Amino acid sequence: MSALACVAGPLAPPIAATLVRVLGTTLRLTVAGTEAVGRHWAPGRPVIYAVWHGQVLMVPWINERLRASHGARAATVLVSRSRDGEIVARYLSRFGLDSVRGSTSRGGREAGRALVAAVRRGRDIAVVPDGPRGPRGQLQPGVVTLAALTGAPIVPLAVAARPALRLRSWDAFMIPWPFARCAVVFGPPLPVARDAEHERAMKDVARHLDDATAAAERLLAA
Fold first, then answer.
1. Fewer CB within 10 Å, N- or C-terminus of the chain?
2. How far, in Å, are 14, 17, 21, 118, 168 from residue 95 at the CA level?
3. CA 104 from chain center: how many Å?
4. CATH of the domain at 60
5. Which residues of the chain have pLDDT under 50?
6. Coil/strand/helix, residue 145
7. DSSP secondary-structure letter at 80?
8. Do residues 27 and 106 make contact, with C-beta atoms less than 8 angstroms apart?
9. 192-199 LR contacts (CB < 8 Å, sep 24+)
10. Which residue range forms the structural domain that includes residue 209?
């Protein structure tokens, strides 16, 4: 989440979180797809959220808002062990979200075990499957492995906004302008069987993430 750290770092996480909350109050927000994921919220069945890296800025605020309005739960978020990751973890904590530190390049095995343990304790998990360095929109295998090991379904999550600033970063990091229209779409929960063919499951999850993003964009065009 290095692009998020570029936003949060110079300001310090407490100030960045305050600015995001203030920005959130100005957005004209539309949320779709909560019916299917809500069937997991009510009985406390854990899910694994997946969202593309460039869309993550408002997700902690969205989770906080849905906890108050829809019965969503706080999630445990996978964050890298880098210095940028420390900034991100502190930012997330301002929204009541805890983190597990690790990535494919550093501490991935330990982080994977911690995430499995968190799911088995009933925690929802949030991952950025094309992070922390990309390529943009290219799913890494960890999220599928986690779902297969735990039985928790993957819930594609997409956020779109118009108008929005797009940073010149590898992930085209999105920052909504104040008073923008913002759409949040939850895709259908996707179970992954333990014996699922990994490449096929990865393609299926990536397709559903792209479908959720397209649905969010369509909501803004309506």
1. C
2. 10, 8, 10, 18, 27
3. 17
4. 3.40.1130.10
5. 1, 8
6. helix
7. -
8. no
9. 192/144, 192/147, 192/148, 192/153, 192/154, 193/148, 194/148, 194/149, 196/144, 196/148, 198/141, 198/144, 198/145
10. 2-221
Tell me how far apart the alpha carbons of residues 87 and 105 are, in angstroms, rounded to a whole number: 18
* Tens of pLDDT, residues 73-109: 999 999 987 777 888 899 999 999 999 987 655 556 7
Closest CA to 37 of 56, 51, 18: 51
Instruction: Tell me how long the chain is.
Output: 222
Sequence letter at residue 52? W
Q: At what angle do helices 83-93 and 13-26 cross, to 10 degrees?
A: 50
d(CA 126, CA 136): 17
CA distances from 206 to 138, 151, 212 (A): 7, 18, 10
- What are the start-end ranges of the H helices in 71-164? 83-93, 108-120, 142-150
Nearest to 198 by CA among 136, 130, 128, 149: 149
Cα separation, 57 vs 69, whole angstroms: 20
**Which candidate, 158, 156, 145, 152, places its Cα nearest to that of 199?**
145
Instruction: Provide the strand spans (E) within the chain.
Output: 28-32, 48-50, 75-79, 98-101, 124-127, 154-166, 174-186
**pTM reported for the whole predicted model:** 0.92
